[in-house]
Write a structure and sequence with these properties.
Layout: H1 19-34, H2 38-49, E1 56-64, E2 70-78, H3 83-91, H4 99-104, E3 109-112, H5 113-118, H6 123-134, E4 139-147, E5 152-160, H7 170-200, H8 204-214, H9 219-226, H10 230-244, H11 249-258
Antiparallel strand pairs: 1-2, 1-5, 3-4, 4-5
Helix pairs in contact: 1-2, 1-7, 2-7, 3-11, 8-10, 8-11, 9-10, 10-11
């Protein structure tokens, strides 16, 4: 009697791949299957990236509402996307105009960016695509798994500056992406409560500073607005970095926003 598997091995998975590439793919699967922490997932993603001619890799979870609409990011694992680009992405709300992410958050599957970009028609979408190119994100592949019942979607994006034969990697990305999806779902349940608690531990002054940074202010400008020295602002930032386990302003804003940073309205302005 033949065994029936929920997610069988695609027969064409290793077509046109060398023995070394096949061994590398199996190694990534091995690490993804054992991932227990976000660091483990990141390690598997780094190894995964080694298979492809892409120099940018990002993965994460997106929260979905009852109607399937995007509500925010959580547990994002950045391997090699520029921090400045991630900051702009969150600050400018690019998730609402990024045609690849819009498709990825609506249904499971794998996209070659070029194909999706060709369908973009609005000025906002076209402007987003050009801005992404300026950050070396000209072409790529994104694979996603959407779970409406849980209100979550996972995504893994590979990007690069140059044209590549992305079609060659679609089946492999989709298959290994499925196992990275399972790994990320396992670790997210462990990591999210701790990060959310860290956000709750931010002081009112730290929340205010993060909101100003989210609005694009420099450390000096924040100091002028709050009537303190730039050194004091840096002191508060060091405390924020420690609490959120990050190393940069953009990472701090992204992590805090993903896990419930209170949005302050009517902030005081400089006199």
């Amino acid at each position: 009697m033949a065994l029936s598997f929920k997610y069988p091995l695609p027969s064409q998975l290793f077509d046109n791949f060398s023995k070394q590439e096949c061994q590398h793919a199996l190694e990534v699967f091995h690490y993804a299957a054992q991932a227990e922490t976000s660091d483990d997932v990141r390690d598997a993603m780094v190894r995964f990236q080694g298979l492809f001619p892409f120099n940018r890799l990002l993965g994460g979870l997106a929260r979905l509402g009852l109607g399937g609409q995007f509500e925010g990011f959580t547990n994002v694992v950045n391997v090699s996307y520029p921090d400045e680009w991630l900051y702009l992405y969150w600050k400018n709300g690019y998730a609402s105009v990024d045609p690849v992410f819009q498709a990825a958050s609506q249904s499971s599957g794998t996209q070659v960016w070029k194909r999706t970009y060709r369908q973009a028609t609005s000025d906002n979408e076209l402007e987003f695509i050009e801005t992404a190119r300026g950050f070396g994100l000209a072409d790529g592949i994104t694979t996603s798994s959407v779970d409406p019942a849980c209100g979550l979607a996972t995504f893994f994006s590979f990007a690069g500056e140059n044209d590549v034969d992305a079609e060659r990697y679609v089946h492999l990305v989709e298959y290994l992406g499925h196992h990275l999806h399972l790994a990320l779902m396992r670790t997210a349940r462990k990591d999210a409560p701790a990060t959310e608690q860290c956000v709750k531990e931010l002081s009112p002054r730290e929340v205010t500073i993060l909101n100003w940074i989210k609005n694009g202010k420099t450390n000096w400008e924040v100091g002028q607005i709050l009537g303190v020295t730039e050194r004091t602002v840096r002191f508060h930032l060091a405390s924020i970095f420690s609490k959120l386990d990050v190393t940069s302003r953009s990472q701090a804003v992204a992590a805090a926003m993903e896990h419930g940073l209170p949005v302050l309205h009517g902030l005081p302005t400089a006199s």
